[in-house]
Specification:
The complex is a heterodimer of chains A (about 270) and B (about 325).
Chain A (H helix, E strand, L loop, with lengths): L2 H20 L2 H10 L1 H12 L2 H4 L2 H38 L3 H5 L5 H33 L3 H9 L1 H29 L6 H13 L5 H4 L3 H8 L18 H24 L7
Helix pairs in contact in A: 1-7, 3-7, 5-7, 5-9, 5-10, 7-9, 7-13, 8-9, 9-12, 9-13, 12-13
Chain B lengths: L6 E10 L2 E11 L2 E6 L6 H9 L6 E6 L7 H7 E4 L11 H11 L4 H14 L15 H13 L5 E5 L7 H16 L3 E5 L3 H7 L2 E6 L2 E7 H7 L5 E7 L2 H8 L5 E6 L5 E6 L2 H15 L3 E6 L4 H9 L1 H5 L1
Parallel strand pairs in B: 3-7, 3-8, 5-6, 6-7
Antiparallel strand pairs in B: 1-2, 1-4, 8-9, 10-12, 10-13, 11-12
The chains are: A mainly alpha (about 270), B alpha/beta (about 325).
């Protein structure tokens, strides 16, 4: 079987999964979930005194914090847990996995296809949410100031950085949750475990910290965010290394998931 | 015929912890229609899932046309499997399900559409193709499952209870399709607990009980191997009482039962060949008008009762 044919099969699996997931009712719930940070941004517009609200530096700093600590670590994190665990384990719960396993495709290719399908949905939902979050925060400074900031090199650069970080977060978290879906029946268990790991990761030995996606993402933030006492653990790695580490973790996780899928048995009981 | 053209199981066992799924199954199934029968819990579905690679054997090997189920990329080019499960992706229509399946087989969208139309027409679902499967009746779901299994024109069809939920007309249509495929040289393995259906469709049977294969072969061959049960022969004639009386003169005849309507007699004998040899003489001497003479227990129901017992037949 040629590599080209396998790639076509993987893309077809991804396309079909993307269409089925995006067309599902649950995705609407995910979109609503993503609007939480936007609601916070809206509240900020009306609740914060005008003088503070119009402070561009303060807005930039608060945006970085809300993006890093809430949007990434909560919305994108649990959103990925929902999407990527569902991509495999969800089919077991729906009793539809056998339909995929009865196709003439290597199981590890099927897993790769499912990963890209869920990733496409994640990007379709989280990237617009990120853009909307940045714009909503900036709007607190008024329309004119927002426009000026967004067309400036720094403002646009920050927006692109936030979007890219969100995409990398989806790749990193997504791959880990996809892997978890092959081992755990309840998606909340791996999500909670990984959240705990991310919390204690700064105190763990370096080899273990490699698997902390949040740590790598933190290193990529365009505006430094203080993590309080955790700041001393240092995230001073170069951006390229952080990107490579996230992609490396994702590759390992998807390969492990493929390996696990090879021997996976369908048991709906 | 080469083993690479058969469905072959060698020493296959599947245990779920300490629970037995199937135990030490050896099978060699050639082309044609093969019925897999047995009571609930006999291991039929486990065996079928092993063939499809949905579960892995604890011991032994499975090969379909020489391909291991661990190689789905090769296996499912040649095999179509209709499972017992009736769940489908939410929102899928009959058409979208089949088109997606065929595109994942590597077909271009246009070809996939054409094949989808053909498969849906084969199972009589063209009119409902655009409706969501969730809204289908049980019978329609069976049909769409069958269409999904045969849309890529596989050489081997494995069907787990494909006639469940179908109305009589639907059953007869599906049976015709299966017979046609078997007639074309395909392997069609069908599990069913409805014995007269298996009789209607199967060239050969595989009978399972307690996770083991208790009989395999044509129904006649299997029946003839059951030597501890007398052969039952039905004779329809004008004076069945005379046939019964003459039959009892033979040492190998162990029973004779006149039918309720009085138009025939069922003779039980330990030597069927001897009885068939003696029957023409009885007919001549008694001047009988014979309508039919045929084996009364060369069917799946009888074989099933002999091998598994009535409690199995009720399952």
């Amino acid at each position: 079987m040629s590599a080209g044919f396998r790639v076509r099969q993987i893309l077809t699996v991804a396309k079909v999964d993307f269409r089925r997931t995006l067309g599902g009712r649950r995705t609407l719930g995910l979109v609503l979930f993503c609007s939480f940070p936007l609601a916070l941004a809206l509240v900020r517009i009306f609740m914060i005194p005008e003088a503070a609200r119009m402070d561009l530096g303060r807005t930039t700093h608060e945006l970085a914090q809300i993006f890093s600590l809430f949007h990434l670590r909560f919305i994108v994190f649990f959103g990925c847990a929902f999407l990527f665990v569902k991509s495999f384990r969800g089919e077991v719960l729906q009793h539809t996995l056998h339909l995929a396993l009865l196709l003439p495709i290597r199981r590890r290719d099927l897993i790769v296809g499912k990963f890209f399908g869920a990733l496409a949905v994640a990007l379709a939902v989280f990237l617009p949410a990120t853009v909307a979050l940045v714009l909503m925060y900036r709007l607190a400074n008024g329309f004119e100031a927002t426009l000026q900031t967004m067309v400036s090199a720094q403002g646009l650069g920050n927006l692109i950085a936030y979007v890219a970080i969100t995409a990398l977060a989806a790749v990193g978290y997504g791959s880990l949750f996809l892997l978890a879906g092959l081992f755990f029946k309840n998606p909340m268990v791996p999500a909670a475990l990984y959240l705990g790991f991310e919390a204690v990761a700064p105190f763990l030995p370096l080899p273990l910290r490699v698997f902390s996606v949040a740590r790598h993402l933190h290193a990529l933030l365009p505006v430094p965010v203080s993590l309080g006492p955790l700041a001393v653990t240092g995230t001073d790695m170069p951006g390229w290394l952080a990107v490579m580490l996230i992609l490396g973790v994702a590759t390992i996780a998807v390969r492990l998931a493929g390996w696990r899928a090879q021997g996976f048995e369908v048991d709906y009981s | 015929m080469k083993r690479s053209e058969h469905i072959v199981l060698e020493g296959v066992s599947k245990f779920y912890g300490e629970v037995l799924g199937v135990n030490n199954v050896d099978l060699n199934i050639g082309p044609g229609l093969t019925g897999l029968v047995g009571p609930n819990g006999a291991g039929k579905s486990t065996l079928m899932n092993l063939l499809a690679g949905l579960i892995r054997p604890t011991q032994g090997t499975v090969r379909i046309l020489g391909i291991s189920p661990a190689e789905p990329e090769l296996l499912f080019r040649k095999v179509g499997f209709c499972t017992q499960w009736e769940n489908f992706p939410p929102g899928a229509t009959g058409r979208s399900l089949l088109e997606d399946t065929l595109m994942m087989h590597g077909l271009a969208r246009r070809t996939a559409r054409e094949r989808t139309g053909e498969a849906l027409e084969t199972v009589g679902l063209t009119a409902a193709a655009g409706r969501k499967i969730d809204a289908y009746s049980k019978g329609m779901k069976q049909r769409v499952k069958l269409a999904n299994a045969l849309c890529h024109t596989p050489q081997v069809l494995i069907l787990d209870e494909p006639l469940n939920g179908l109305d009589p007309q639907g059953r007869s249509e599906i049976i015709e399709i299966l017979k046609e495929l078997a007639g074309q040289g395909h392997h069609v393995l069908v599990s069913s607990h409805i014995l007269h259906e298996v009789d209607l469709i199967s060239d050969t049977i595989v009978m399972m009980h307690g996770g083991r294969v208790v009989a395999e072969g044509t129904i006649r061959d299997v029946r003839q191997e059951i030597v501890d049960q007398p052969v039952q022969i039905l004779i329809r004639c004008d004076r069945p009482q005379r046939v019964a009386a003459r039959a009892f003169e033979m040492v190998h005849v162990v029973g004779a039962r006149i039918l309720d309507q009085g138009g025939g007699v069922v003779v039980a004998t330990r030597d069927g060949q001897a009885f068939f040899k003696a029957l023409p003489l009885i007919v001549l001497e008694e001047d009988l008008a014979i309508e039919t003479v045929l084996p009364a227990d060369e069917d799946v129901r009888a074989v099933y009762d002999y091998l598994i017992g009535p409690e199995g037949a009720q399952a």
